[in-house]
Design goal:
It is a single chain. It contains 24 helices and 25 strands. It is α+β, with helices and mostly antiparallel strands and 856 residues long. The strands form 9 sheets. The protein has a 5-stranded mixed β-sheet. Strands 5-4-18-17-16 form a 5-stranded antiparallel β-sheet. Strands 22-25-23 form a 3-stranded mixed β-sheet.
């Protein structure tokens, strides 16, 4: 396949042939017209010298072009002479101490003619670039070879001259095989009894590198470097062919992009960055000389490992440039006096760790490695991803990413045992704008997994997309809410919601044998609206009894929750299910309604984004496009993409749910921490026994989900005693992170206030009933009698001694059953404070408190 460089070398995958190749026109000139490789006259310097007079071809003294004069009998004659001469000379070079008995021109020519001339050039290995949505590079996925292909026009003259002078001073004079240098090398090798000089031109070195790059087996790689007549003949054969079809500058460009400079750097741009942290255009004379000296032996002359050897080799290159008249005495002295100063920032074994947005980088990499549309096997995917030179444009928006990063780390600082994960999704597109967490991406210091590590700073886990770690708590009630609205249940649907509710349809939790609320004092009558505001568990269990658990699970899936834990359990038992063996949901799972089953933070953001988009579900999208540079153009590559957005609930149902969820922020469990100065909707969630806490909210343009938990095990390490708070609710730290993320993103994107539905304020329809006469009863008996008839009691604690002499309101008064009844007890002195409504006693609900009130 053809090279991917800017020179017109044919498309990727092509084979250079005589009909399609380029003639060697103006092979002596670079793109500025400067003739490289010709020694200047006395006192001239090579780079900066005015271009020589125009003329065809680079020629030595007297116009000698590097080819024998007087040969005018056409291509066939030249081929025969070349075959004989090259075959013999190359063979002599390769076997200097074996002897030359029987080695004749015919022998060399026979071997020569048996070799193929054309050279198949595989694509150069290049790293892939990951871009954000604005086109900025956020990560470079580097494999074993780091290379950045650059056109020759970007390579400064001083760098070109340095590499030519030290490696092939007659580059612009010979025709691919330098017979003069080869004979000189043969004589030196013959005298020493071993191969000490190679006599290879830059063109031959390029051929060798191409063959080595194309090798797929150990045998092929060995054949590309072994010291044999056949290898030398093959290189020379290809070199002469290339010289007939490419210009000198094209060959030089390709050589500079394929050569190995050590430290994993292939090509001159990669070398400039690896050693000096600069682009190739900025290379100085001493830097260029050092890099030119590396290609002979990159390990031995590595300046980081062998600085003295590197300096000696650099100075040798400088001497050679001076000897050939390409730098002046002053330039030589100044360059030799320059110390070797490297700029090599530390590199991580994992390229995503060096990214500005490592979490997003790691998720992109994970998705593509597991994407069989992208590549048929994991091994193929890795090779394509790390060596294919891809450009991967993603949905990441720096404004959203920075907002989420800063918010998570400010509220729960890095190093805290609690992990805070954030996902930001764009409603109407499904574009994932940000993934964030309060951890540095990287291996833990103790190399332990999340469950046992003592390192709370580092992790390679991507918590916002992990669907098995954390329970969503009451954020899941939203799916029951939407299912009820779709079934035309009025928002005024009222249930008496006691502190402890025994279900007749679902198994009751033990040891209490009932479903309870986070606060026993919130027992009372609630509408669908007010029960959502205050996240009342016992209301939602009764709601689930009417709707059905599997219908709620179906709604969660429809809105965008993809976790295996929301699939039907019977489906997960099928052998062909991707969720095989993972417990799903059954019709008897009452706790499912209040968020017992694990889902990812991203799932929550996706589902709530569906509500923000008025019922239009768009599955999460991370990648916008993948292209590969081929023959000067960008070819799109296939990869798995989400299906088109789908209207999964009506706009009216979505808007009604939003109107209810606005009250969570305005009046309910998130009122203390989630107000952002504009209309917004959301829901808090606190998982069983404070194992996790969440908040998910949205405006029409953005949906943000936040989850907090201890990765060592949410059940074994609950959210207690965190940053000075005894417990963490979804309306506390998660709501704070959400609000900071949202307000900073709004400001960064300059989002206007978008219209939202008018907040709903539907109150419960509470029945009225006369207050029974409990006079003469003990306090405990009076309380039991009142509660048995649906009343709540205020003003006296159970177990208070004495006899009840009356009530406020008095016996026989018709009152709402939501209004508490106060007991008047003989011998007690108190002034009961009785008011309609539902008594609340949760200090954490006060604005500004870190653990805003929420329910499981």
């Amino acid at each position: 396949m053809g090279s991917r460089m800017s020179a017109p070398a044919g498309p990727r995958g092509s084979v250079l042939d005589r009909d399609g190749g380029r003639r060697n026109r103006n092979r002596d000139r670079d793109q500025s017209g400067y003739r490289v490789g010709r020694p200047g006259s006395a006192g001239e310097t090579g780079y900066g010298v005015p271009p020589p007079a125009a003329g065809r071809g680079a020629r030595g003294p007297g116009g000698y072009s590097g080819r024998p004069r007087g040969i005018t009998f056409g291509r066939l004659g030249r081929a025969l002479v070349t075959s004989a001469v090259t075959g013999l000379v190359v063979a002599l070079l390769a076997v200097p101490f074996v002897g030359i008995v029987g080695l004749t021109a015919k022998t060399g020519a026979d071997r020569w003619m048996a070799l193929p001339a054309n050279l198949t050039e595989p694509p150069l290995v290049e790293p892939s670039r990951i871009l954000d949505a604005q086109g900025n590079v956020i990560a470079t996925l580097v494999g074993e070879q780091y290379r950045e292909v650059v056109p020759l026009s970007r390579v400064p003259q001083v760098m070109r001259q340095a590499i030519i002078d030290i490696e092939d001073a007659r580059f612009y004079e010979h025709s691919g095989v330098d017979y003069r240098s080869m004979i000189r090398a043969y004589l030196a090798n013959r005298q020493s009894g071993e191969v000490i000089q190679g006599g290879s031109t830059l063109t031959q070195q390029y051929v060798k590198n191409v063959l080595l790059s194309a090798a797929t087996t150990d045998e092929d790689r060995q054949a590309a470097i072994e010291q044999t007549v056949e290898r030398k003949l093959r290189e020379a054969r290809h070199a002469l062919y290339l010289e007939e079809h490419l210009s000198k500058d094209e060959i030089l460009e390709r050589y500079l992009n394929i050569a190995y400079f050590g430290d994993g750097a292939y090509g001159i741009q990669a070398a400039a960055k690896r050693y000096f942290g600069i682009d190739v255009e900025a290379l100085s004379l001493p830097q260029a000389a050092l890099l030119a000296g590396l290609v002979k032996n990159p390990s031995a002359y590595n300046p980081a490992q062998h600085p003295q050897a590197a300096k000696t080799r650099r100075d040798l290159v400088l001497d050679r440039m001076h000897e050939l008249g390409h730098i002046s005495d002053a330039e030589l002295a100044e360059a030799k006096a320059a110390p070797i100063e490297l700029n090599q920032p530390p590199r991580s074994p994992d390229p995503c760790q060096d990214s500005a947005y490592p979490l997003f980088c790691a998720e992109i990499r994970r998705q593509l490695i597991n994407d069989r549309t992208f590549a048929p096997t994991e091994a193929d995917a890795r090779k394509l991803l790390f060596e294919g030179g891809l450009t991967i444009r993603t949905t990441l928006e720096p404004v959203a990413q920075q907002a989420a990063d800063s918010a998570a780390r400010e509220v729960v600082p890095v190093g805290n045992r609690v992990a805070a994960g954030v996902a930001v999704v764009q409603p109407g597109t499904g574009n994932v704008l940000a993934l964030a967490q309060n951890r540095e991406y990287g291996e833990t210091d103790d190399r332990q997994p999340p469950a046992t590590t003592a390192d709370f700073v580092h992790t390679k886990e991507i918590y916002p997309v992990n669907e098995t770690s954390f329970s969503p708590g009451s954020t899941f009630k939203t799916f029951a809410l939407v299912a009820a609205i779709e079934r035309r249940m009025p928002l005024s649907t009222t249930f008496l919601s006691p502190a402890c509710y025994q279900s007749s349809r679902f198994p009751n939790p033990q040891p209490s044998n009932c479903y309870g609320n986070a606060d026993p004092n919130e027992a009372g009558y609630y509408s669908l609206t007010t029960a959502t505001w205050h996240s009342v568990n016992t209301y939602y269990i009764q709601l689930a009894e009417q709707i059905g658990i599997l219908n709620i699970a179906e709604m969660a899936r429809r809105l965008g929750v993809s976790s295996c834990r929301v699939q039907e359990h019977r489906d997960n038992q099928r052998e062909d299910s991707p969720c095989h063996g993972i417990p799903g949901v059954s019709s008897a799972d009452g706790a499912f309604t209040i968020g017992s089953n694990e889902v990812s933070t991203l799932d929550l953001a996706t589902a709530y984004a569906t509500l923000a988009a008025r019922g239009l579900r768009c599955d999460p999208r991370f990648i916008l496009s993948i292209t590969q540079r081929v023959g000067g153009s960008d070819r799109p590559l296939p990869f798995s993409t989400p299906g088109p957005c789908e209207q999964v609930i009506s706009e009216q149902v979505a808007d009604t749910a939003t109107a209810v969820l606005e009250g969570v922020i305005n009046n309910g469990t998130a009122a203390g921490n989630a107000r952002i100065g504009r209309p917004a909707a959301g829901k808090t969630g606190t998982a069983e026994d404070f194992s996790a806490a969440s908040f998910v909210g949205y405006i029409p343009q953005l949906a943000v989900a936040v989850t907090l938990a201890d990765p060592r095990g949410p059940q074994t390490h609950p959210l207690r005693n965190v940053l000075g708070h005894s417990v963490v609710y979804g309306g506390g730290f998660p709501a704070q992170i959400w609000a900071k993320t949202m307000t900073r993103a709004i400001e960064g994107f300059r989002l206007p206030v978008a219209p939202m539905p008018t907040p709903d304020n539907t109150q419960p329809q509470i029945p009225t009933k006369p207050v029974p006469d409990v006079s003469g009863h003990s306090v405990d008996d009076a309380v039991a009698l009142l509660r048995s008839q649906g009343f709540t009691v205020a003003g006296v604690a159970p177990g208070t001694p004495g006899v009840v002499i009356g009530t406020l309101p008095p016996a026989g008064t018709e009152i709402s059953q939501a209004q508490p009844v106060a007991l008047l007890v003989a011998g007690s002195q108190f002034s009961p404070s009785v008011r309609p409504g539902n008594p609340v006693s949760d200090d954490d609900d006060r604005p500004g408190r870190g653990g805003g009130r929420d329910r499981r």
